[in-house]
Specification:
Layout: H1 4-19, E1 35-43, E2 46-47, E3 52-57, E4 60-65, E5 71-77, E6 87-92, E7 95-101, E8 109-110, E9 113-115, E10 140-144, E11 148-152, E12 161-165, E13 173-180, E14 188-195, H2 207-211, E15 214-225, E16 232-242, E17 253-258, E18 263-266, E19 269-275, E20 278-285, E21 290-296, H3 301-313, H4 320-330
Parallel strand pairs: 1-8, 1-9
Antiparallel strand pairs: 1-2, 1-5, 3-4, 3-6, 6-7, 10-11, 11-14, 12-13, 13-16, 14-15, 15-21, 16-20, 17-18, 17-21, 19-20
Length: 333
């Protein structure tokens, strides 16, 4: 019997090799699937907004622009398949930053960049089609990275609510509200998006669920400072899932891990809206721990093949990276 996963990888590599020839000049060779990077650009501890981030590999340069929070994304680095060069060098506003190694088809690789000298004075012209924008406000952010954010929620009166709005683009969580039983003089909420890493927790889905096309979109670690779980009257967690991840929104739910019992429990979760490229949800909880966003993948193998065919024919509404996101989500990863 054909191993369909291997077949899909083989087919997709052919399709993308054919469609990427014009991106870089590989002569008679073909380009590998791009390696995509994202992260923050900083100098002396401060974020660098509206600055050009450039990745150079084997003489080819690829650039995007940071947003108002100093964050860049969708920096796609390409390489010819016959080249043995894998070392990538980064610059921010022409200043040298970190390095990385090319990995064909890698997604959303976190690469926070720091430069040791200030950007040159004067305008640095950003490339066309640069990086994406950030989110809204709310609260005072203590720390932000590509996968975590902490919000100071301050003093909360008895029966009052601590409210934290999160702005980190790829965090997944947008808002947390916690109603307390007893007053607290200070509080904070930290969210860490752990991606496919569940840490100390067991798998959030069973083998039977996985066989039924259920998958984990991401694991989240949410901790609350100065508010114990016993002092929580109720709490809500608002989160989002990109449409391109391929999940049926009617099946998406948030699950919480009980480390003492080593079990997962499903939380009351409702689908609240569909805005732009995201589905938005709200879940209720009475304590904080490790969480998992799970749901049933709505894209079947044949639908995935059709999406690839449409992309190859030039009739697909999806970008290359959106299609790769759907493929990755189909295989749980």
């Amino acid at each position: 019997m054909i191993n369909f996963k291997i077949f899909m990888v083989f087919l997709i590599s052919i399709v993308f090799s054919a469609t990427l020839v014009a991106a870089i000049d590989c002569g008679i060779s073909t380009p590998d699937i791009p390696h995509e990077f994202q992260g923050y650009a900083k100098y002396s501890g401060s974020v660098l907004a509206s600055k050009t981030v450039t990745a150079t590999l084997d003489g080819n340069a690829f650039s995007v622009t940071t947003d108002s929070s100093g964050y860049y994304k969708l920096l796609q680095v390409e390489k010819c398949s016959d080249s043995a060069v894998t070392a990538i060098t980064f610059t921010v506003c022409t200043r040298a930053a970190e390095t990385a190694s090319f990995s064909s088809g890698a997604f959303n690789t976190s690469a926070n960049l720091t430069i040791s000298s200030a950007c040159p004075t004067g305008a640095v012209t950003p490339p066309s089609g640069g990086g994406g924008g950030g989110g809204g406000g709310g609260g005072a952010a203590v720390a932000v990275s590509a996968t975590s954010q902490t919000i100071n929620t301050g003093a909360v009166a008895a029966g009052g609510t601590a409210s934290a709005e999160f702005t980190a683009e790829d965090l997944g969580v947008t808002d947390i509200k916690i109603t307390v039983k007893q007053a607290v003089t200070a509080s904070s909420v930290t969210v860490v998006n752990q991606g496919s890493s569940r840490g100390i927790a067991t798998n959030a889905i069973t083998a039977a669920e996985a066989a039924g096309n259920m998958a984990v979109y991401s694991y989240l670690k949410i901790t609350v400072g100065k508010i114990s779980n016993t002092n929580i009257e109720k709490a809500t967690v608002k989160f989002k899932v990109p449409k391109t991840a391929g999940y049926d929104p009617s099946t998406v739910e948030l699950r919480r891990y009980d480390s003492s019992k080593k079990v997962w429990s499903s939380l009351p979760t409702k689908f609240t809206s569909e805005v732009g490229g995201y589905y938005y949800f709200e879940a209720e909880t009475t304590s904080f721990s490790i969480f998992a966003v799970v749901g049933k993948l709505s894209v079947t193998m044949m639908e995935l093949l059709d999406m690839v065919r449409e992309f190859y024919a030039g009739t697909s509404p999806y970008t290359m990276m959106e299609l790769l996101d759907s493929i990755r989500a189909f295989y749980g990863g």
